[in-house]
């Protein structure tokens, strides 16, 4: 009995020591005394502000998709880019999430901001939903007509088609949209047509809207360049040796500006990440 008691005590001691050692190994960083998870973010992790933005506006994007056929993923990715995850001045103060200008025919409220000129006129919306709807109306033009023949869940073709139609001047604009869509898994909000007949019906409806706008809108409103400048952002791809501070020095912008444009909550970045430097 004595030997059995000693053996049990010895066995219990091993379990306790092993458990303590295990906790030290998992929780204690060997150099900094912090957990490894605090220092090693998962590759492709998305900023919290971006997730909050998507949660807030995904239903609006889905509603617009169902009505006009613009993939919800595309609309959300464009909004994330152009509004800086909702942190831009226009998004905060004017509910303008896509940078659409007055265009000489806007009768609502407006605000002046430097863009192509020192005092460019931008539309002020009553709420973000109105901005998302106006973005759909902006795309319902002859220039973008071919896009509406694509499937509602074909975000890759939409991204490439927007660039080809002149929406953006940066050659990597499609890649940036696709990167955002796949990093945030925005494709989960896209839905294909239920049937070919449904797709055909939606295409005919969109075609009628575009033709009507062509015949009734004044020339000033037809000119898309007056309504919105092509997105001409500078994009940087993160390399293995890069730090956010190093990129800011190289690109001659502040760290805060990069973080705001990309919705970054910390200085952590990963190889291959596409960062918007300026726009």
Characterize the structure shown.
It is a single chain. With 279 residues, the chain is mainly alpha-helical. It folds into 3 domains: 2-35; 48-227, Orthogonal Bundle (Lysozyme), CATH 1.10.530; 234-278, Membrane-bound Lytic Murein Transglycosylase D, Chain A (Roll). 53% of the residues lie in helices and 6% in strands. Strands 1-2 form a two-stranded antiparallel ribbon. The protein is globular, with a radius of gyration of 25 Å. 28% of the residues are buried. Mean pLDDT is 79; it is low at 14-45.
How would you concisely characterize the structure shown here?
It is built from 13 helices and 4 strands.
List keywords for this structure.
globular; single chain; two-stranded antiparallel ribbon; 3 domains; mainly alpha; Membrane-bound Lytic Murein Transglycosylase D, Chain A; 279 residues
Strand element count = 4
Oligomer: single chain
Average pLDDT for all residues: 79
Q: What sequence of helices (H) and strands (E) makes up the elements? A: HHHHHEEHHHHHHEHHE
User: Helical proportion?
Assistant: 40-55%
Largest sheet: 2 strands, antiparallel
Report the β-strand fraction as a percent range.
5-15%
Structural class: mainly alpha
The geometry reads as globular
Q: What is the CA-CA span between the terminal residues? A: 80 Å
**What is the name of the CATH architecture of the largest domain?**
Orthogonal Bundle
**CATH top level of the largest domain?**
Mainly Alpha
């Amino acid at each position: 009995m004595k030997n059995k008691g000693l053996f049990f005590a010895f066995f219990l001691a091993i379990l306790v020591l092993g458990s303590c050692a295990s906790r030290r190994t998992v929780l204690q960083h060997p150099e900094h005394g912090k957990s490894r998870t605090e220092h090693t973010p998962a590759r492709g992790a998305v900023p919290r502000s971006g997730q909050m933005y998507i949660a807030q506006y995904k239903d609006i994007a889905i509603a617009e998709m169902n009505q006009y056929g613009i993939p919800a993923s595309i609309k959300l990715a464009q909004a994330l880019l152009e509004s800086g995850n909702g942190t831009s001045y226009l998004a905060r103060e004017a509910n303008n999430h896509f940078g659409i200008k007055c265009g000489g025919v806007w009768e609502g409220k407006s605000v002046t901001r430097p863009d192509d000129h020192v005092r460019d006129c931008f539309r002020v919306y009553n709420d973000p939903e109105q901005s998302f709807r106006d973005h759909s109306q902006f795309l319902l033009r002859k220039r973008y007509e071919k896009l509406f023949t694509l499937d509602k869940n074909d975000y890759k073709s939409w991204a490439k088609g927007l660039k080809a139609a002149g929406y953006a001047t940066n050659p990597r604009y499609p890649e940036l949209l696709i990167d955002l869509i796949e990093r945030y898994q925005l494709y989960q909000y896209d839905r294909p047509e239920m049937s070919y007949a449904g797709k055909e019906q939606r295409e005919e409806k969109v075609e009628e809207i575009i033709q009507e706008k062509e015949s009734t809108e004044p020339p000033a409103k037809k000119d898309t360049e007056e309504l919105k400048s092509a997105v001409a952002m500078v994009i940087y791809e993160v390399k293995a040796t890069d730090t956010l501070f190093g990129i800011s020095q190289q690109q001659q912008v502040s760290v805060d500006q990069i973080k705001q444009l990309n919705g970054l909550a910390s200085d952590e970045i990963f190889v291959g990440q596409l960062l918007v430097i300026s726009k």
